[in-house]
Fold:
Amino acid sequence: MNLVEIAQLAATAAEEKKAQGVTILDIRGLSVFADYFVICHGKSQTQVQAIVTAIKDKVLESNILLRGIEGYQDARWVLIDLGDVVVHVFHKDEREFYDLERLWGDAQQVQVQ
Structure:
């Protein structure tokens, strides 16, 4: 599975749990630590945790290396490290505050399928 397909898999899993504003950013050439960001948010801590669990389950089911998950307990900004794909699952308030799409404004958006 290539990196775009991994990002799409994570995005689809998030959408299945009703994640809002699911976005994939192509950050190749802009970052040395990843090639793609998947960004989305939930409206509650419970929903954020459900989104993260769904992504984790899909990734493991597809035999993709899951390097780590940070922030799950607080469920305000959860990072899922899939190597060259990093998934950011925010609580709605944190997403608006950190506004990663603006910070990475030079990145190309990839259409979520």
About this structure: The radius of gyration is 13 Å.
